[in-house]
Specification:
Number of strands: 10
Strand content: 15-25%
CATH architecture of the largest domain: 3-Layer(aba) Sandwich
Shape: globular
CATH superfamily of the largest domain: Glutaredoxin
CATH topology of the largest domain: Glutaredoxin
Order of helices and strands: EEEEEEHEHHHHHEEEH
Length: about 210
């Protein structure tokens, strides 16, 4: 099974064409033209059509409006940098959360998040925000809001483990290969840059 990778900004030069910024001027190698940075418009975010048949979407939702499914993991550094921004700035959408396993490290936060979703859903989004913004303090916060026994039970709950396994299998089945990712309607967008342009800036995907 292929490992997850994070989408990070990189400088990539393609054989068929690339953009080079020189002192505020962009040279488009694939056309041979020169434009200012204000004139150049990047191509629309790339969308992938997906089928959500058999794809579970569980609440609680954050906000009201068009349904958006966020696919992420607090174990992913790029996700920890990006998800708090989405949670703070996203408007006009109902945001749902879908877990996916990332890396080979521990998954205590993922287990606790799923357990809170199932047993104390009124705490879910506040706890999720802490898992991404201040992960070292998240379990302590949850213990204070519930009890140490609650947290211990969450971390060993077999039903929670089964739910996480189902989420991971379903996410991989629709072809997600990078996180963070979102599904809007039947379109999948992968990587923080594409998500920001579609959800926060209102661009349409290609």
């Amino acid at each position: 099974m292929a490992p997850w990778y994070e989408v990070k900004p990189k400088r990539v030069l393609l054989a068929v064409g690339f953009v080079v910024a020189l002192g505020g001027v962009l040279f488009l190698a694939f056309t041979g033209t020169v434009k200012s940075k204000t004139e150049y418009k990047p191509p629309p975010p790339r969308a992938k059509k997906v089928s959500l048949e058999g794809f579970d979407v569980r609440g609680p939702a954050l906000g009201e409006g068009e349904e958006v499914i966020l696919i992420s993991s607090p174990s992913c550094p790029a996700c920890r940098a990006f998800v708090p921004k989405i949670l703070q700035e996203l408007k006009g959408h109902s945001l749902y959360y879908k877990h996916v396993r990332y890396g080979k490290g521990g998954d205590e936060l993922e287990r606790a998040m799923e357990c809170v979703r199932e047993k104390r859903e009124e705490l879910f989004w506040d706890f999720l925000k802490l898992c991404y913004s201040r992960p070292a303090l998240a379990l302590t916060w949850l213990s204070d809001k519930t009890s140490s026994d609650f947290v211990k039970t969450c971390l060993t709950d077999r039903a929670v483990e089964a739910a996480l396994n189902r989420d991971d299998e379903q996410v991989r089945r629709i072809g997600v290969s990078a996180i963070p990712a979102v599904i809007v309607g039947d379109e999948l967008y992968q990587g923080g840059v594409a998500i920001k342009r579609v959800l926060l800036e209102g661009e349409k995907g290609d």
